[in-house]
Amino acid sequence: MNMVKEASGRDSPAEWSEPADGGATLALRLRLSCSARDRDLRVGARHTIAHCKAELHAQEGIEPWRQRWFYGGKLLADRLLVEEAKITPGYVVQVIVSTDPHPPS
């Protein structure tokens, strides 16, 4: 799986900004396999991928155990911090959503 460059050429999907509390936030561009559409998710640079999965669950209703996040052809581990993933502005994180209705045992 390769990184996907945003076709529009916009700088928006992964721009860093500094909120008032001093912690950096990042707008991740996610491509969801279950809906064939992209969505933006604002997260903190010091959040883990597991936290991001929980945020996506809150917004889209996709349980975290059903989500596998890939960037640059590599699976992003749940304990990895967003800033450690070094997601390049303008690129997309692929979210593969399992169709299995039951969590693994």
TrEMBL record:
Organism domain of life: Eukaryota
UniProt xrefs under InterPro entries: Ubiquitin-like_dom (IPR000626)
PROSITE patterns linked to this entry: UBIQUITIN_2
Task: Please list the residue ranges annotated as the Ubiquitin-like domain.
Answer: 26-98
Residue numbers spanned by region Disordered: 1-20
The residue ranges crossing the membrane are: none
Q: Where is the signal peptide?
A: none
Q: What is this protein called?
A: (apollo) hypothetical protein
Origin organism is Parnassius apollo (Apollo butterfly)
